[in-house]
Amino acid sequence: MATNTFTRWSVIASGEGGGRVASQFFERAENPGIDERILVMNTNRSDLRNTIDRLEEHIGPSDDEDQLMGNHAIEFGSQAGAGNFFPNGEACAREDIDRIVNNISNLAGNTDAFMHIATLGGGTGNGSIPYIIDQFKNGLPDAVDENVEDWMGSVIHAAFGIWPYYYEQPQRHFNAVCGLSRLLRTGNERQNADMVLLASNSHLEDSDSEGDDQYGSINNAIIRAIDLMIGAGRETRSVIDIKDYVTIPSQMDTYHFTPAVSTGLDGSVFELEYMLEKASENAYVPMDVETTQAAYAIVRAPEAMIDNDEISEPDVYDAFRDWTSSHGLNVAGQASLTPKRGRGSDVDVLLLLGGFSLDPLLDHSWDDFEMLGESLSGSGSGKSKLTRAELDRIVSNLEEYADHNIGK
After folding, report:
1. Whether residue 13 sits in one domain with residue 144
2. Which of 22, 189, 262, 370 has its CA 20 to 30 A from that of 309?
3. Is the domain of 25 the same as that of 125?
4. Contact 234/32 with Cβ under 8 angstroms?
5. Is residue 399 situated within a structural domain?
6. Residues 55, 154 within the same domain
7. CA–CA distance, 176 with 172 (Å, rounded to integer)
């Protein structure tokens, strides 16, 4: 990793849904470890135009749209969109992989970790992100500069996949199941992303919001979780960082996670174990907490509370141990206390829950996936064709992984 005092992250988002999330990062006054290393990608110029408009809302109008496109956006592939068929999104990324790598290296040189973001129900992000991660890790083009290849070879790849609403059409649920499998494992059955984070639109839905506000509420929840996760690694001593998140879970083959978040808890009133329990009730996907096999707890408290010893790292460790014990969990995991500016007593808690049973999430999509599988295998043409063998491999990879992660 780079020798900075904190991990340098870059955000790579593909498709309109992923771009919608990424553009909201620019609303933040401070992105811990990210700064402005944010790139949005799309195969459709009109969708990319929508994302550029959102970027300009957050960073101000640009006199030079070409410069804004060059710094933060890229149109890839020769197709005008992926047509909600993930093989098209992958084919577009394969067609332009050299240019994609060059754009990312110009934006994110010497980055330590990538956060890839895609909505799993679509065709563009869901098709391109798993392929791009695989290429970065295992098969960069021959034309890539040696220096770029050296630093990319050590980069950690986290992926945030967003599950479609349960009521959406079967095609989106077919895509989602395929996208999850492809993020987890490549065609040759090896691990793809180093960490796969999951959120479900329906599970995060805010009943008081509608339309774009609904997406805004969900996207803000996702960004809040990423901020807490990345913020814990701002200093290199006595903290949880991305290496901790990925090393042991990868060895255990339990590297899918979901955030569980509770913020604004009064640290002068509530016990830490209660705060952890409140966070665990707010997991971003449907799940049974007691099937968790890996867990990380990040408690963020005002600097003044930490300086005054109102809350300490031993307190956090003890509360985490008590919380896992209360759920009968014998998990791989760590806990950490990280400061935030200000006084007051508002405490934020992030639990990263990993290796849990995927059945509650997949149950919402599996019937649609099976219904469409027969008709879609063999569809498409050329590089965008989904063969029966490829679909069978997607199924077997996911089933083998999920069977290993069924909890106790």
Report:
1. yes
2. 262
3. yes
4. yes
5. yes
6. yes
7. 6
